[in-house]
Each structure stands twice: as C-alpha cells, then as structure tokens.
Amino acid sequence: MAVSPLPPPATDPGLYYDDIFALEQSYWERFEKRTHRVAKGDSLYKILQESGLPTGCVVEWQKTCPQFCRPDRIRPGDRFDIYIDKRSGTPMRVVHTGKDGGKALLVRTGETWTCRDGGAGSFVLQEWASGTITDTLYESCLRAGLPSSLIMELADLFAFDIDFTSDLRVGDTFSVYFEQTVSDGRLVKAGPILAAVMQVSGRTYQAYYYELPDGYRDYFDEKGQSLRKMFLKAPLSYRRISSTFTYRRFHPVLKIYRPHLGIDYAAPTGTPVSALGDGKVVFKGWKGGFGRYVEIKHNATYKTTYGHLSRFAKGLKVGDRVRQGDVIGYVGSSGLATGPHLDFRFYKNGKPVNFLKTTFPHARSVPKKLMPTSRPPASDIGPSCKGPPSPVWTSPPPPAHEAG
C-alpha cells in the first residue's frame, strides 16, 4: 500500500509557524478580551451592555443555546470572558466560569452560535489531619495540613467548651475530618469540617456535622447535643485572669477591701472584646470607675457588662442587636484601672453571679429516635487512624456537599 507523501510546508510566511505555541499566540492576538465579574442583580443584557456589546446577542443565543441564557445559571461571583474580533468588532467567543470552576462556552462560527460544557467543574475531596499541640493551636494545625481557614472554624466549634487561652497544653491532640473543593487542580474552597476530636487537659471533646430532618444544620457532640450554647466561655482572648469573682478583694487603686462581683481578664490594650451571646445593647458610654462601658441584655434573665474599654466598636449604639461573638469594643484601662484589662460581669435575674461556675443549656439536640444504637469510640478519629472516621450518625446521613 502506497503512502502519500506529506504536503510541502507553506511558503507564505504569514501561514507558517515554527511551533504550535506561535500559532496559538497568533490566533489569540486577533481578539480583544473583555472580562466581567457578575454582581448581584446582573443579567445577560446588563453584562453585554457594560462590555460594550449589542444586546441582540442574547436573542441569538436564546435560539441556539437556550440553556446558556437561563437566569439561574448566572450567580454573583461568576466571571464572563468575552473575546471580540479586533477587525470586525464581532463577539466570537464567550466563556462563563462559575465560582466553583465549572465552565460553559459559546463559540461563533459564521452566523451560528454553538454552546458546550467547558468542563466538569469542581469536585469534593474528603481529607483528614491530626497532630499534637507543640506551640500554638494555629501553628500546630498548619503543620498537620489543616487549611488555615479551618483552624479558626475548629476553634469556633469548641469555643463553648474549651478556653483556648488557658485550657490548651503542649501534648494535647486534635484530629479533623473535612472537605476540600478542587477545580482545575486548584483548591477553591476548604470546608466544611465534618467531624473533629480534641483531647485537651485530659478531656475529650467531639464534634460532628449533622442535618436534622427539618433542614437545621449544626455541630453536635457524641451524645447528640449541640456544641453551641447560650454563651461563649470567654468574651475575649486573654493572657490571664487577674481577679476573680469575690465578695472581698483589695482594690489596687482605692486601697480598700470591697466586693469584686466580676472577672478581670488581663489582655493587651486593643484586644477585641466580643458579645458573650445574642442580645441588645442597653448602655454604651462612660460609667464612673468602669470607664468606657457596654451593657448587653440577652433576655429576661441574663445580662452582661464590659468595662475599662479603650474604645467602642465602630458604629455601636444603644438599641443595636448584637450576635454572639460580635466585637463590641476593645480592651483598655479607662476608669479606675491600673493596667489594661476587661472588667466582665454576668447577671442572672438582676443579681451578679460567678460566670466561671455557671453552666448553660445547649442550643438544640438531636432527637433520641435519630440517635444511632452504637457509636464509634473517639479514637476512631485520632492520630493512629489509618483512614476517615466511621460515621457517627446513621439516620439520616450527613448532608452531601456538591458543587457545580
């Protein structure tokens, strides 16, 4: 069988290229690229107008690629790359890239538009990281491979039970089972955490992500109780407790013995102070020896106060509703104070109580009928684990997280 010889190379220097890269470069030089980042309220018409293109393109697309024009395909954060022929000013190619990395393409051939899926988009991996505390929680988790954004999420999970300023010790352990979303070989999202176990100061704390039948999602412990409680364990990150709740304390400024019905948290000036729980700001201003002072009413039973602040949170005013963890001010030494600290007080039914010795109810629990008959031990999610933890909840399963 005769083999046809290869055709001779083109003699026109405008059509001959040394390599495929030069060919590709020449092709893309024909186009002007205009990029539009989708904002809330954007439509295809608006995107075309802001890109300087005729809105009649949408009519053409609706005929040949109606699925591309569906409003629910366009979401804030998406990106449109529009390639326009420099010679004719005609749009030739449109690439719609979703926040999850998925792509849809519109390509013009002559007078006809064709569309196709530009890729499978993103996919979700389940990973786990475990390690031992050798210095700070942040540095120890980073070395174990936990994404930085999830380290704060891990701390928030156990913020109601673990005071990371005073409870954490060298030698304590952690293990975290989590998801990562990957697109085009790049990490586009870390989280959520699906399960976590920490052993701190000899105690074991567990957290499991779960969705109840009514759609409520939260983190629960091994007994099915929500990790969220009415109040945080501390209103700030502090160095030490300089004064505790007592009815007889020597005042360092007045030089007399008097009751101290609160807790003094020593911390550097400027340390953020957070609302201990959801509530309403009922006082903000200067209050005698307390200096700059904020009072929050949480409900008919509880209120908290925050004194000696250096300044208030920007925009905070009486009557504002605050959420648990919102910054309301910053540590200082205003009023009668010898150094920077927060004077924190907790009231129940109008009477001051020792917050450090008070327990509070959980936000919500998993109904007993949904609890599994047996649970894996905490060691199933630990440094010795050879794979992901056994599922704790068996009916219904934890929610699936799909992107695309």
Provide keyphrases for this structure:
404 residues, mainly beta, Nuclear Transport Factor 2, Chain: A, Glucose Permease (Domain IIA), 3 domains, 10-stranded antiparallel β-sheet, 5-stranded antiparallel β-sheet, 22 strands, 11% helix, 36% strand, disordered N terminus, disordered C terminus
What is the compact description of this entry?
It contains 5 helices and 22 strands. The chain has 404 residues and is mainly β.
Molecular structure report:
This protein has helices at residues 20-28, 44-50, 56-64, 137-144, 148-157; strands at residues 31-37, 79-85, 91-97, 103-109, 112-117, 123-132, 173-183, 186-200, 203-211, 217-220, 240-243, 246-250, 257-260, 263-266, 272-274, 279-286, 292-297, 302-312, 321-322, 327-331, 341-348, 351-352. It is elongated, with a radius of gyration of 30 Å. Residues 1-18, 247-251 and 373-404 have low confidence and may be disordered. With 404 residues, the protein is mainly β. Helix content is 11%, strand content 36%. The protein folds into 3 domains: 20-117, Nuclear Transport Factor 2, Chain: A (Roll), CATH 3.10.450.350; 123-229 and 368-381, Nuclear Transport Factor 2, Chain: A; 240-357, Glucose Permease (Domain IIA), CATH 2.70.70.
